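Researcher: Go.
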Amino acid sequence: NINFEKLSSGIPEIDELLYGGIESGTVTIISGPSGTGKTTLGLQFIKEASGRGERSVVYTFEESVEKIVERALSINIPIKNMIDKGTLEIKKIEPLIYTPYSFAQLVKEDVEKRNTKIVMIDSTSGYKLSVRGAEITTHLHALCKYLNNQGVTVFLPTEIKKITGEFQIAQEDISYLADNVIILRYIEIKGELRRAIGVLKKRLGDFEKNLREFQITKYGIKVGEPLKNMRNILSGAPSFIEET
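Model: Structure:
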């Protein structure tokens, strides 16, 4: 019997977007172009879980462990303490060593032997390029289903190639894997390129329908008030509605 308690991000504005947080034991796609902060947002949820003594594992297919650690430290996520405490492990997955089955076994063994509560597969495109075999999406879906049944919360950072323009969740059709979809994207505000965060889907509850400005600072993630005076945000050509 899985109890869908909510996982807080530790950032009040993100929790407001999600009406309290993400339900544990669900799959969340974090979708956006390169550099928008997908891994960082996943690590923010992991930091909160670590504070509750829960263990997380990040399987990184693209970046080195050192790079992830360095970036987390630069934005005030105490990642070394989390690793030392045993509430976080980052595993670099070298390309073309694993089949979908052997990778799934690696994840299952960790969950069953070490009581892991959060798994982040960073990223879905890295998984597809690095794991040998056909029907990769089907295997990823089966792995996510298994993790759900174990009450494990899954984060899937998913890169979209377009920086602006017509909105899409993901390159391939992996959106059906997700209980929740969080989007990060670049928007232009008065000639300046900024980032925004929003929620597109939440299977187990309601969510705020606005986008908010999303900043990554040396003090951590900062999220602003809803961008209520903007329109056409998802078209990639947002414009301000002049206040009268």
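Model: The two ends are 53 Å apart (CA to CA).
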